[in-house]
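U., I forgot to send this yesterday:
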Amino acid sequence: MKKNFKRLSLISLVFALLTNFMYAQTDSTEVASIYGFYSYSNSLMNASSASELTIQGNASHTSTGVQLTPASSGQFGGLFINGRTFTSVNGLHVEFEYDMKNGTPLSGTYGDGLSFFLYDGAVTSPTIGAPGAGLGYAYNRAQNTYASQRKAGLSSAYLGIALDEFGNFKSKRFQGESRVNGIAGVTWSQPTSHVTLRGAKGAAINTTGLGDGFTGYPVLITRSTLSNTGTVGRVLQTDRSYLATSNTLSSVFDLRNNAGEFRKVYLDLIPHFINSTTTDGFDIKVDIQTVQNGTPVNVINYYHYKTSVPYTENANPQTSDFNNSDVEGAATSQTLNATTPSFLKLGFAASTGAAFQQHIIRNVKLTLPYSAVTNDDVASTCKFQPVNIPVFNNDIAYKGPISITTPPTGSNANIDYSTFSFTKTSDIDLTLYRKKVTPAGTWTYNKSTGIVTFNPSSGFTGTATMTYTVKGRTVKDSNGKIVEPYGDTAYRSVPATITVNLKTTGCIYATISNRMVTQTVK
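Result:
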């Protein structure tokens, strides 16, 4: 039944306020994460003061995000979230938005693209990889005439994921100014607009060109987003050959967002269990949301990135890179050591050449796979009138063992109401805040009902906001082993925002709506 707040008596208003006060829970504390992981989020909009961020090259901070390159030729920029490390034992879930727009094409194609990458968290001063087709991740070798274009790959690199608009990131090249391993001899039906994964930095092989930082980074898998027919992708096999990919995209699209709207990328690294206690690398999934509030398109579907990867080093000089010869030598069989670092860091890079466009990223979020997900809520009320907000209606937590074959299920029924917290002071703050007093009014939370109540102050006008987070539940087996870890602090959601608007006309009912922002279950 709707309440007519216009006829709300003073006695009933006082009763409502007292009721909310009695049932609002007091602050408490939670246990620190046993995994040492805490979620991270940054809009990157006007983020120049964020101490954990460092930029390189032509990158710059703007009001719409970090611009990795402007829309001009020969640009190269990078962003490192170098002040934060993330444990790798439980995997990683990354979200970010990107924009590729403006610029000038070459032979009908814009370039080059952007990469996001993971590297060893022990590195304090990372060095970005090669510009151009390397997209800041891979290396570039050259003979002496072009010695200035030699550039090692990303230092201590573990994994690079490219949104490669021009399409060269996946390709083997052996020419005077550019030598890098990759996929060779393929007649692509769609060579551009590829999502491509390259592996870790390799070991030094010799002193004649294939030294430290100039080997490894092999292509693991690539898939064009433009078509479901013809040769649109390749995946590395254990015999070091490349087999055509077979996954069908739910819809095809160009990585370049021609309308100028931001798109959203989802990356999941799920630990690959070979038995109940042992893992071998990660299963990697890449989805891209091309339309706001639309269903993301699965581009890479759980590629198994093992800790040992056989590959071919196939862009070798006959004798040396350190002469003026362009004679190619024989390819060699190598095995990449892709042991997962205990801690990981994240970065981004982009480049342009004769083909160019603007590259911008924003709204970066890092959580563990299957962390709780909270979504923004909107409510409205009138002067002096409290409003109750059922914030969990559009939120989820997970239940079930972590697996890609039978993944855990997400539902708001899996949320542990006792884990709710209003705005924390930092990512590692262990206090659970159940009441917040602000100039706009008082926010209280009732852990029995999961209801947030906002009581506006007498001077409140306009809009009031508050953020909150929540977790799921931890489940142990009969031996005390954790089989469902979702109650650990590492699985706390990224904050969502509650917005309350003060109505100045038509003040009869308090109305509530839950506005879903993140449309996918992650």
